[in-house]
Each structure stands twice: as structure tokens, then as C-alpha cells.
Amino acid sequence: MLVENQVSLQPYNTLGIQARAQTFVRVASVGDVLALHREHPSWLRSQPLVLGGGSNLVLTGDVTQAVLKVEIAGRQFVSETPQHWIVQAGAGECWHGFVDWTLSQGWPGLENLALIPGTVGASPVQNIGAYGVELQDRFHSLDAIDLHTGQLFSLDAAQCGFGYRDSVFKHAPGDARYMGLAGRALITHVRFALPKTWKPELGYLDLARKANEQGVTSPTARQVFDWVCDIRRAKLPDPAAVGNAGSFFKNPTVSAEQCADIISRDPKLVHYPMPDGSVKLAAGWLIDACGWKGKSVGNAAVYEKQALVIINKGGVVHPATGGEVMTLAKAIQTSVYERFGLMLEIEPVVV
Ligand code: EPU
To answer: Does the reported pTM lie above 0.70?
Structure first.
């Protein structure tokens, strides 16, 4: 366990916002967290900020509560069932590196989730998803520590309460809908169930198009991984070059009637009918339709190639502030609401 004071958080959030942590603790093992619980219980009781790769985070000011930077490493095969390989990673492992490693070991299943920034420990928090696969489709279980009691516990998928970009870890303990665990639990290890009988998941339009272009009907998992990387690189900014937090809003769900009503005025509306009769709309399209691409507030701007992404165009030297990012986000919400009657929900965690 390494404790530092007055640490700049700029290198630890992919938007590249400047803010300081009064107390910054690197935890590299379960033992580190338990030692912290013995030595500084008050830090763990006052809603610490558990930090992975900082890729889904907007900092709106200095952080006064303790920041726990999770650096628990390790990747290993755990066991097998008739249908699955069970594979585990420490919460601090880089997500993309883990996906790459599982493929090189001969355990496909995570390839559609290639190149998502962040760590393995953060992946269940927002139930990451891309190109037709969500984390919950491959999740087995996780280990965590209750920061108040120091108890170790494990959760299966049902106990994680996964939803679209959602889980118990995104909700505060007082949240009426959930027994929320935000700020209360620190995820130490995550296990995945990877299918022994694998088939490519090519349902997403961009991937189907790629398979068609290449004339490949039965790609290997490595080919799908490469295609997903190509698609992401073409559409989404690389956080190492341009600060961003991925999609800034969730795709909203509306009733079939509401969707038909919008289509009567905007026939080009991008919409996806869901199995339960509701319809998911592309938030990027709604924002784009309101003319936001390239617009900015200070150094926070809407990405030119994908309106769902807010970027820091000031880089490291003149970074956007959290206030600029949130002012832009709120202006986008207002304009989409005024035109379509829909309030977009912010996707990253705002601190
Ligand atoms: N679109 C526009 N203009 C835009 C952006 C999008 O017209 O500026 C249209 C596209 O042409 C397309 C549709 O909107 O028809 C959907 O766009 P895209 O395929 O890029 O996907 P998305 O719905 O915007 C979601 C996830 C991404 C994920 C992709 C691929 C959410 C909030 N976002 O984006 O996840 O990579 O699908 O599966 O669900 C993330 O969560 O950070 C993220 C990047």
C-alpha cells in the first residue's frame, strides 16, 4: 500500500481533467485493502473514490475523500465446466490486454469488447458493452471487499444487478431502487465464463459490414478482435491522444408509440426495436441531428466523428475543466429535450 498526498489526478482520468486528490492510495493486493481498513478505517467509511483506469469519470473539482487506485494484478485459468472455461483477472489489469491474452490462450468470447479503455475491475461496474456483446454475457462472478467491515465477499451475475451500462456498483447505498455498493465495495478479482463452443457474434451492423467487405463468413475470434479494433479506431478518439470518456450519454429507450411519433417528424431517426416491444434510440444520432458535432464550451467539445463523445480539446496543457464538460453536457441535454422530448442520461460517473 502506497499513500501519497496532494496528487494530480490528470494522468488518472482519460478525459485529462486537472484535479487533485488530497489522499491517494495505491492498492496492489487484498492485503493492502485489509491493512487500510485496520489503519485508516475513516478513509474507507467516507465514500472513497475507487479508481480503475479513470475512463468513465468526470472530475468536477478536487477530491477530498480518499482515492483508492486499484492496481491488483494477475491473470489465470481457474477451472472448467462442460460448457465454459473459467478465467480470472485481478481488478487492476488493463481490460484490452486481458482480452488479447484470453484469445492468445485459446479462450475466445471477449473479442467484441476489444479496445475498450479501462481496467478489468471497472468492467462490471458499468457492464461494458460493444458490438452486440455485454460484459454480463461472459461474466461468471467477482470478489470484492466491503470497505466498512473489511469482509471479503463474492457476487454472481444476478447479485451484480446488471443492466444497460449499469450495476449495483453505480448506485449509492441509499439508492431506493438498489442495495447500492458505490463507494462501499472494492472489486478485487473478476471471473469470466468463456464458451467452449464459440461462434462469432456478427449481429452489429458495422461488424456485419466488415465481414461482408472482407468476404469472410466464418471469421476466427482474432479476426473479429482485429475488426472491432479497426472500427473503434475509425470512430472513437484514442484517449492517449485526445482526452475523452467514451460515450457520454446512454442510448435512451422509448415506447413504440413515442418512436413512431418522432419518426413522423424525423423519418431518418436511428432506432432499434427491443424484444420487450420498447425501442432503443441512438443518442449519437439525436445529438448529431441537433447540430452539436464540433461545438464546444471552453475546451470541452463534441467529437466531430461521433456526437456521443465529449472530448478535451485542450490536451494536457490547457485541459477542459469538469465544469466545461458538464456545461456542454447540460446544453446538449436541453437541446435534445427541446427537439425530441427526451432527457438523455449521462453515462460516466460524475464526481
Ligand atoms: N450516429 C449518428 N451520428 C453520430 C453518432 C452516431 O448518426 O454522431 C448514428 C450512427 O450512424 C449509427 C447509430 O447512430 O447508425 C449508432 O452509432 P454507433 O454504432 O457508433 O453506436 P452508439 O450507439 O453511438 C454504442 C455504445 C458504444 C459502443 C457502440 C458499439 C452506448 C452509450 N454506446 O454507441 O459504447 O462502442 O455502441 O457497440 O451504448 C461506450 O460506452 O463508451 C461506448 C463507446
So the answer is: yes
